[in-house]
Amino acid sequence: QLSGGQMQRVAIARALINDPSIILADEPTGALDTETSKQILDILKEVSKERLVIMVTHNDKLADEYSNRIIKLLDGEIVGDSNPYNSELKERKESDAKKTSMSFFTALFLSFKNLITKKTRTILTAFGGSIGIIGVALILALSNGFQQYIDKMQADTMSNFPLTIQEEAIDISALNFDRNTELEEYTELEKIFINKITERFQDIQITNKITDEYIENALNTIPKELYHSISYEKPHNINIYKEVTLGNNIKQYEQMRRGSGSGAIWKEIIDNQDFLLSQYDVLEGRFPENKQELVIVLDRYNRISDSALMSLGLLNPLDQTRDSFDFDEIIGSEFRWISNDLLYPLKDNPAEDTGPFINGRSNNEDVVNEGIYNQGLKLEIVGIIRPNENTRMGAIESTVGYTSMLTDYVLENSKESNIVNWMTQEENKNINPFSGQLMTDKEHEDHLAALGGIDRITKVNIYPKDFKTKDKIKEHLDNYNENIENEEDRVYYTDYVELLISSMNTAIKSISYVLIAFTSISLVVSSIMIGIITYVSVIERTKEIGILRSLGARKKDISRVFIAESAIIGFSAGLIGVVIGFILTFPINRIINRLVPEIGNIAKVNILHALILIAISVLLTLIAGFIPSKIAAKKDPVIALRTE
User: Fold this and answer.
1) Closest by alpha carbon to 387, among 160, 147, 148?
2) Which secondary-structure segment (H or E) carries 421?
3) Across the beta sheet with 459-464, what order do the strands follow?
4) What sign has the CA pseudo-torsion 79, 82, 83, 86?
5) Do the beta carbons of residue 213 and residue 184 sit within 8 Å?
6) Number of CB atoms found within 10 A of residue 312's CB
7) pLDDT digits (tens, 9 = 90+) for 463-519
8) What is the pLDDT of residues 294-332, one digit of tens each?
């Protein structure tokens, strides 16, 4: 539909578009009238100001008018040169030849423009490619949420079951007495074999010497970033008393029952308040900050057992009608810690056949008089706390928690008390301080321990931050043992939580990997589909390929156009998949919350996982579009231009 002159102008434009250094014009005025020929040559002359134009023509007049060098040829031989080459002249430094190229952004723009013209197909293709991404995103969200839940449960469990070092313990890893037996299972022998549990039980008992050297070189050298806290326990009784009102407004000063183990009512809390705040909500008041402050611990239903309340003197055993307390009835409640010197004063004139000390307690040793009570160290409840929604097993095992400052104060005071000093003298070693009667070594040690007179660490609790840091702490302690030559001087820890959680971690990871593997099949299928769509696009755009090649586009430029198209589809598919996966976490969490309320919002999309999934989607579509793009690059431009 173009005239000859228009075609020549298009040809010049096509030659100029890639900014070449040299233009070869073969009979540019052939079959053109004189006026049009002049216009074409004027264009070439203007172009020759910035680049070399070599023109072939049979028209001597045009050559003479427009050229500054004319080389005449006849039968393939040079017969004349108006400006012959002079080899003696310095060679002009040639500029680097410019290569035709299409930038990636140009290719991206062409691909984006093509995809926009086919909106429906592009959206459907991207959505089809996103299906696999949606599946993997949801599995990763659930796996991520479950892992966070397990990590939190691990931290909570380790706060109740820390790494423990005790003077006497049991190697729990050796408790399976059926392991390594040489006996045959389900034997047909008519014999009864003895399972020597008692003998084996003796072999798994651990005796540790927790020395100052071990504390200094093993425990104090554990990197602080690996644990929340390390607590040390020494044998002692903490004498807590409270004023209680009996019938007829009679007041009595009773000792509070402490309990032990998981049933402890009074117990020291760890020093890391940030860790405690991550596990507990403060419902009223605050955490204790000095030796005289206490905190009350409720369960997740805001409950305290009636037996604990009665042991604390807060609930009258005869009051069967009361079922709750207001916070302000508990906050400010007072207790007294009473020292050894107040409880066990020296006798003025002890008899020869009795001990030198008076037992200041009466009524089965759980009541003191008002004078002794009022001299005691005042303790006050300053806070009420409760495990938060994410905590199943908190670090505080007791109903009442106090700080290590109170423990240190009690032990220091007890160690310097008159009764402890008397009992630790060699001549009084086995004498009862009250009756003057002889005691066995064991009885003496028990009495001294109850009075806080044994300055010896009997138990160490290490609270790791998580399973990984726990393993590093264990490795640190194991390395210390390896450097101890004498087996009896080695100190061994007990890891209760390892048996509880490790198998659960393995199960969750295994299930996640299997589900991801199955879901990834859909990613491969969607990638193949995108490859087919890209090939269809190559067929549809054959003529466009011919035009691009005729304008100077290289094979790699054509390949780049279709690679860019695949990348756009892959990015769109990945983005759609991640967004839909994120949206679907809301109904999934609601369903799971109804089925298992205590788990909470378990499906959580990790931003890093989302970015990785988008990158994987782009990578897979690039791989899928590689073959079609190469097919497009190899098309002959002349044949491609003829395609309708």
Assistant:
1) 160
2) helix 418-423
3) 163-166, 459-464, 227-233
4) positive
5) no
6) 23
7) 888 778 888 999 999 999 888 888 888 888 888 777 666 666 666 677 767 777 776
8) 999 999 899 998 888 888 888 877 777 888 899 999 999
